[in-house]
Amino acid sequence: MSSTHEHKEPMIRISKRTGISKPKAWGIRAIALVLALIVAGLVIFAIVKLSPLKVYATMFKGALGSPRRVWATIRDTMMMLCIAIGLAPAFKMRFWNIGAEGQVLVGGIATAFCMINFPTLPAPVLFLVMILASIIAGGIWGLIPGIFKAKWNTNETLFTLMMNYVAIQLTSYSVAKWESPPGSNSVGVINQNTNIGWFPSILGNDYVLNVIIVMALAVGMYIYLKYSKQGYEISVVGSSENTARYAGINVKKVYIRTMALSGAICGIAGFLTVSGASHTISTATAGGRGFTAIIVAWLAKFNTFVMILISFLLIFLEKGAVEIASQYNLNEYASSIITGIILFFILGSEFFINYKVNFRHGRH
Amino acid sequence: MTQIISLFQAAIVFGTVILFGATGEILTEKSGNLNLGVPGIMYLGGIAGLVSAFFYEANTANPSAIVAVLLATLCAFLASALGGLIYSFLTISLRANQNVTGLTLTIFGGGVANFFGGSLNKLAGGVGQISVAVTSGGFRTKLPGLSHLGTVGELFFSYGFMVYLAIVIAIVTQYFLTKSRSGLNLRAVGENPGTADAAGINVTRNKYLATCIGAGISGLGGLYYVMDYTKGTWANDGGIEGLGWLAVALVIFATWKSVNAIWGSYLFGLLSWMYFYVPGLTRSSQEIFKMLPYLVTIAVLIIISLRNRKENQPPASLGLAYFREER
Hints:
A: ABC transporter involved in vitamin B12 uptake, BtuC; two-stranded antiparallel ribbon; B: 74% helix; globular
């Protein structure tokens, strides 16, 4: 009798975890990172037959080997962090803003426009104008898909994605308009001799102001999301639109307001790049960071302080790979491969944090 | 007249690249997977085809065009399907977020392709020095006889076989999705995996197969780009990436019907190349002209959402992971 009713238990059974302690969750992530570095090391070894340890040591040198390199790493980390901070409120609302790349670019265009056209303004006024222009430009770029999502539920992932390419063409247009010298198809360094509209160096360093601005944004966004009424509304809309509506939250208003904010901060990232780092504008100004920052914001679970860590990790890899490339005569796309492998592992590790895998036990 | 013909020819060649990409992505999205890794997958397909052709030609005394073409196509399909497998494992088995996984796949695929492409350039002695003449020639062989039919021949029969293959695959995909039992099952999975599961359809298997085969088809777009569009060379200029995103746009434009994607892709090609043939454009206004395909896509996206017609909507569960015990 008992044998006929026997069910075959599956080999692996998956159940949702009810809760996991923080150290354990971070332990799982750390294991994933180590595994990723091992796999990436094996890939490196298979391709170039170099000891992975030596390669990682070279990477470390490339990213943090000298004060100048440390500052370059910090500068790019801040840029990535700024975009991720901008994306955080949108993602927390479950609004897939894939359009950071474009929002950064239009912010950069606005900044470059001010640098080129208003060189006679006194410096504080010029900075105010530049930052406002970049906020407005980025804000509008975020606002448009936000409005359509709010009013007609237009798919935001695809809308923001397309807006990137409109922005890229707008950048090409601006470059063709402002090119100097004519025929070079590049804007060149803007105000190279006068340094008008460039970030002043503080304590003898050019990028201190970048750090101050982005850190202020990081703290501000953390407080905004965690402790403000608007932040609370964002998280309610994110977890369930219907609940939000039932609770009397004006969902449309939250969508529109949050997307304007998200775009505006990405616009500031464009301002930081043009005025505070490269002093030029090109279609490479955003350089794919708008896409990478999406991953940063998502992995950090919208916590702006965790974002610092992840941004740093990714920029470290990028800088390190450039060094490997020049040292071993490879090309720098190795960094994208390593970044991809590490992100795959971290993404995969989230599963083991959220779910428990039960193997079939031997019968009694 | 010759201007118009050459515009159409440019549009069809351009369109074919994104038609492969879009057809594969339609198959994938019908299973409920929004794979934003299309550019990366097309990169993988392009580089796998190029590398296999390069080594075949370098190591064979008398390379045969047919073998070379078959080998490159097979390698491109397998490499892209492998990219799809990584995506499938992470999003279906490990339930990772689809958007983030797709974007990572784009970074990874672009990295792999440009790394090996750059190395191959170096190996061959510089940019533009990669010689896969036999393979590329095989891909660009026109239909014998038909291409001499004057204007008609030039317009319709002056392309390599992949232009026609893309059309055939798009039609077959449409037929499969709307007319076959397994296509119906697949669409059920994309609309409502819970219901499909209850009806006894294997959700996981359907999603895996659709995503991997879809990725393989998308990857052929990268192969066509490398072998025909750039005539068997490699440049680290991000060309494939831009086309990959355009393929994603085309999926929306075609409202998830691969037959619509055929004429849609040629229209995108026309819009993208138009600036070259409109007289009196300055270099800066050309750039504004190049916005057209994206603006048109945005317009279509808005119109779809405004009209809210049932048959034009994306699959209902697009972008969501399925976990049986979470209902």
